[in-house]
Amino acid sequence: TPPHPPVAPSAPKAPATPAAAAPWLRARPAPADAVARRAARGMLDRYGRVARLVLTTPAAWDWLSADDHALLASAPPPHGPLFAWLEQQWLDHGAQPWAALREALRGQPFEALATALHDSTLALGEAADGASSAEELRQELHELMRRLRIEHLKARETELLARATHDPAALADYRRVQAERRALLDGEDVV
Length: 191
Description:
10 helices, 64% helix
């Protein structure tokens, strides 16, 4: 039998995970961590801005309607659980200063988020030096909630349109939700 040709050394094994091969593919930090980092830089979405206002202004939770509380508590994590907890704190203890909230937050899964949101206010110099009046804060909170309701209604419209193909009642609901969103866009208070 003819001799076998020499076997070439095998190629090195590929790394077990794509992240090992490409460090930039590593898992992204948890959403709460990302929100906390944005808070430190003052870059927040609407939910973050509402949370920051409520955490730094003890009376602010009372400025919100029951519908606002429900909308905030239904927000996706990390904000929704924080808002649900804030509502329970309000119901149990009423308006509380940051020191009391800070103590109650210990061990909560959203402690780091709430602390970062509160501390971002101090770093930015908002509300801590009394620069914003209660009325200005109330107006800002009202506008943020109006925008959040508009976003919520847009999402609801999309959901209802998808259902309308097999549920005729969904089309009527869609028209009602659309009218509500348009009224909010025109500056009318719908809630």
